[in-house]
Structures are given as structure tokens and as C-alpha cells.
Design brief:
about 475 residues; mainly beta; Immunoglobulin-like; 2 domains; 6-stranded antiparallel β-sheet; 1 helix; 31 strands; about 5% helix; about 35% strand; elongated
């Protein structure tokens, strides 16, 4: 009897030990330890802070000049002054539609390209949104069949999906594009999903972006999740976290990347890692370019061809010597004019003469007449062919070097003519022009003379005055 009891006790002890080491493990299997995904990052296409400031003073309808507060802002408005703004970006002032910035005059004064349509009151918000595509990269460390990847990005505590920047998170801005790629053969991704303010963790609310996949999963190969598209909706970057932050120091936000089980476990989290996003002011680089206009007169050498004619003498920047002129044939010389300007409206060059070519050292001060061309009727405003040396006088023609700065009707070969000429006037007449900024427009001024056999002997001279005017 005693021996039977001992045997029974041993059997009970054996069964207990077997149950302890095998039965319990079957009933309560040990959970897999959570691990960290590796190499996680979130690269923003633009990591500049959004702007959310306030008006300092009323701006009436029609005015495009606004002044920004530098202190005493409402709690939700945290951008001070104009330092973080950029020319050509759009500002939403009060209830007005966004208007582009024309100039930033001072630390507080901004000029818009057009006036407000509705009056804005002092204290009204002034907003410039900056949005970005998020490219999140990470490497899984667990092979989970038919699971999902979920990226959580901090949301603002209020108005987290109203299309306006928030001081404490990213505005969802109705993002509807989420896509995943990479990971190797174990991943066939479905269309991603985006949910605003989906999850709260330790008092912080997160937008959720998820890519589910089919396949056995894998490890060691990077996966890329892209949130938003360049031409579509993108998350809006936060405005500064506070008015007292140190300018130029990034505001940082923690994002989370999770690897989850599949639908049979309700996509519970297996692995998770935490990363950091930094948003900071952009650096506004400024430079001042002064209004410029350069105008140069250059000489042409003897023997060069200008306006289809060979120069009989060398000219310089301030002298055009014909030398001894003929009574039976033309004498031709030339100069080059060069104009450059950064003026928005371009430039105009006019030419005039001080008077007729005159011999001041001869009794009676004889003059050489202006040409009237072969037609006998060309004027300072109407050129015509001048190819017959029996038609005496002094005149000029033009050759456009660039093909863009001399009116076609003034060129030397206009309408097949041999030398399309006109006389100088004592009033400035346009010889060159261009309607936008230009670098090195060039034209030849081709002078021509022939005198009658009765022209009094002597030294004749006058002055040609060129005036270049830019339109800024």
C-alpha cells in the first residue's frame, strides 16, 4: 500500500514537470520581442517653416502694402516680422485670397503685387503655407507575411486638416496619395491610405499613412514610402513653434515607423522606430543690381566693309574723317555703336547733327548740303536709295549687326536697295532701339559724302550727337 502511494506520487510529479515545460508553453506561447526598424529617415522636398503672422494696423481694400507685427501676437500666430518671407510667394491676408509678394521693403513692411479686395483689420492673420512631399525610407528587420507599414507624422492639436499651417504639427491638407516601393521580392504593395489625426500616443496626435502588402515579407532591403505628390496635395509644414524660439534653429518633430502584422491580428504593431523631422527658416539671399546703361562708339578701320561699302578711312570713337572727298564718286566711312542695358523697357538711341558740314575758316562759311538721295525727296525721317554720285550731299545709312535693333526700313539694303540713305537732322531721330533688357546690341552707322564741282575748297566739319536712353 505504501509502495503504491510512492509510485503514484512519482507519476504525479513526472506529469507536473512535463506539463510545466511543455503544456504551459503550448497554452501560452512566448511573444516575439519587438525590434527597431533600421536606417529610418523622412526627407522633405521643402523643409522650410510655414509663415503665420499678424497684421500691425488696418489695410484698406485696394491697398497692397502691409505691415507685420513683431510682438504681441495671438497664440496661434507665431511668425514675427518679414524675415522668413520670400518675394513671389503668396500671402493670405485676413479673408482675402492669397496674393503674391512683390517686394519685402523692411523687417515689417511687405508690398503685394495687387491690392486687397477686402479690408483687413489689425491682428488679422497673415499666412504663407509651405508644403512638402515626404519621402520616408526604412529597412525592415522582421519578415512578416501579408502585413503593413505605417508611418505616423505629428498633427496639430487644432485645425489639423484645414489647409492652414499649425504651430505644433503638420496640417494634413487632404493628402490622398501614399505609395510604397522596394523591400525585395517578398513585398507586393497595395495602394496606400492616409488618415488625418488617426492615432494618439502619450498626448500627441498623429496622421497615419499606411501601405499594406501581400507576400512573405523580407529583411535587409530598404522600403520607401512617398506621401503626397509634387503637383497634388502635400502635408503643410508647421509654422514656428513659438514667438520666442531662437531664429534659425530648427523646430523638430518626432515621427514613427511601424511594421505591423496582417489582418488576422488586426495589424497590431510588431516593430517600431522613431525618427526626427526638422523644419527651419529658409535663407533669403538678396543682392542689388543697379540700373545700368552702357553705350559705346567704336571706330572702324580703313578697308572694312560696312553697309555693303568699303571704308575709305579709319574712324575712332570721336572722329570720323572723310579726308579729301571726291566730286565724282562717293566716299564712305563708318563707326560701330554698342548698347547694353538691364532696363525692363530696353533702350532707344537717337542721332542728330549740330548743323550742316561747314567751313568756318572760309569767307562766307560755305556748307555742304544734306543729301536728298536719288529720288530728290528723302528726308531725316524717310530714307531712300542713294546710289548716284551726281546727287550731291552728306548722309548716312545703318547696318544691324545683331538683326534686332534697327528698324528694317532704315537698313542700308532695305527692299533690295544698294544704299538706303537719309540725312541727319538737328532734331534727334531714332536709329536703334530694343524693348527689353539686352547685352551688346550693335549697329554700324555708315557715313557717305559726295560734293559738287563748285563746292568751295576748305575744311568742313560738324558734330553728330548720339543719345542713348534706357526705359526702367
Amino acid at each position: 500500500m505504501r509502495r503504491s502511494r510512492k509510485t503514484l506520487t512519482k507519476l504525479i510529479l513526472i506529469f507536473f514537470l512535463i506539463f510545466q515545460f511543455s503544456g504551459l508553453s503550448l497554452l501560452f506561447p512566448k511573444k516575439t520581442d519587438s525590434a527597431n526598424l533600421t536606417n529610418i529617415s523622412d526627407t522633405l522636398s521643402n523643409n522650410r517653416l510655414s509663415f503665420r503672422g499678424e497684421l500691425d494696423g488696418t489695410v484698406p481694400a485696394g491697398s497692397g502694402v502691409i505691415v507685420l507685427k513683431t510682438s504681441g501676437l495671438a497664440s496661434q500666430n507665431t511668425s514675427t516680422g518679414s524675415a522668413a518671407l520670400m518675394v513671389n510667394e503668396y500671402l493670405k491676408v485676413g479673408q482675402n485670397a492669397p496674393i503674391a509678394i512683390k517686394t519685402i521693403d523692411t523687417n515689417t513692411r511687405v508690398v503685394l503685387v495687387s491690392g486687397l479686395t477686402t479690408q483687413a483689420a489689425s491682428g488679422d492673420p497673415v499666412i504663407a503655407t509651405v508644403s512638402a512631399v515626404h519621402t520616408v525610407t526604412f529597412t525592415p528587420v522582421s519578415a512578416v507575411p501579408n502585413g503593413a507599414f505605417r508611418v505616423l507624422i505629428p498633427a496639430g492639436t487644432t485645425g489639423a486638416n484645414d489647409g492652414l499651417p499649425d504651430k505644433d504639427g503638420f496640417d494634413f491638407n487632404s493628402v490622398n496619395s501614399v505609395s510604397c516601393s522596394g523591400g525585395g521580392a517578398g513585398y507586393t504593395f497595395e495602394t496606400g491610405t492616409a488618415t488625418a489625426s488617426a492615432i494618439s500616443i502619450s498626448g500627441t496626435t498623429y496622421h497615419s499613412f499606411e501601405c499594406r502588402y501581400r507576400g512573405n515579407g523580407g529583411t535587409g532591403t530598404a522600403i520607401v514610402m512617398t506621401i503626397g505628390t509634387p503637383s497634388g496635395n502635400k502635408l503643410i509644414n508647421p509654422s514656428p513653434a513659438s514667438t520666442t524660439r531662437f531664429p534659425g534653429q530648427a523646430d523638430t518633430y518626432t515621427f514613427r515607423v511601424r511594421h505591423t502584422y496582417g489582418t488576422n491580428q488586426s495589424y497590431a504593431t510588431l516593430d517600431e522606430s522613431i525618427g526626427t523631422i526638422g523644419v527651419v527658416e529658409a535663407v533669403r539671399v538678396t543682392a542689388t543690381v543697379a540700373p545700368t546703361l552702357t553705350f559705346q562708339i567704336s571706330g572702324r578701320a580703313s578697308g572694312t566693309t560696312n553697309c555693303g561699302k568699303t571704308a575709305a578711312a579709319t574712324t575712332t570713337y570721336n572722329s570720323a574723317p572723310f579726308g579729301t572727298v571726291s566730286t565724282s564718286s562717293f566716299t564712305d566711312i563708318a563707326q560701330m555703336l554698342t548698347v547694353s542695358t538691364n532696363a525692363a523697357g530696353g533702350y532707344v538711341v537717337t542721332a542728330s547733327q549740330s548743323g550742316l558740314l561747314t567751313a568756318y575758316n572760309i569767307s562766307g562759311t560755305p556748307t555742304i548740303p544734306n543729301t536728298t538721295c536719288d529720288s530728290g525727296s528723302c528726308t531725316s525721317t524717310t530714307p531712300y536709295e542713294w546710289n548716284t554720285a551726281t546727287n550731291k550731299g552728306f548722309g548716312y545709312s545703318l547696318q544691324d549687326v545683331n538683326g534686332s535693333c534697327v528698324d528694317d526700313t532704315l537698313e542700308w539694303n532695305y527692299s533690295g536697295r544698294t544704299f538706303n540713305a537719309r540725312p541727319f537732322d538737328t532734331v534727334g531721330r531714332t536709329i536703334m532701339s530694343y524693348s527689353s533688357p539686352v547685352d551688346s546690341n550693335q549697329a554700324y552707322v555708315c557715313y557717305r559724302i559726295v560734293v559738287s564741282g563748285t563746292q568751295a575748297a576748305g575744311d568742313y566739319e560738324n558734330y553728330i550727337i548720339y543719345i542713348a536712353t534706357a526705359t526702367f
